[in-house]
Amino acid sequence: RDLNEKLDRNVLVFLTVDSDGFDPIFLQAVNFPVHGGLTLERFKNLCERLELSGVPILGADWMEYNPNADTSNKTSAHFILGCLIELLAILKVNGGRKL
Length: 99
What we know:
The chain is α+β, with helices and mostly antiparallel strands. The protein has helices at about 5, 40-55, 75-95, and strands spanning about 15-20, 55-65.
């Protein structure tokens, strides 16, 4: 809730997203599921807060997706794609700033 207060606008940020932090209802293809983890809405809210914070985001990566554990229709892969679109929007906004 106090994310914007904790961020320093003078420090470059590299954001790493770990699939294990999402609720398995939304992202099943992980090795260590966390019930009660992030939802897509909470992730979108986090991205919006980062974008509005003015913190310079240098880049981002995604980790801990297990394609062998994904369903035949790749539900988790589609979920991650939606999240990556949110991240790309932040990076595009930050791309216009001088770092």
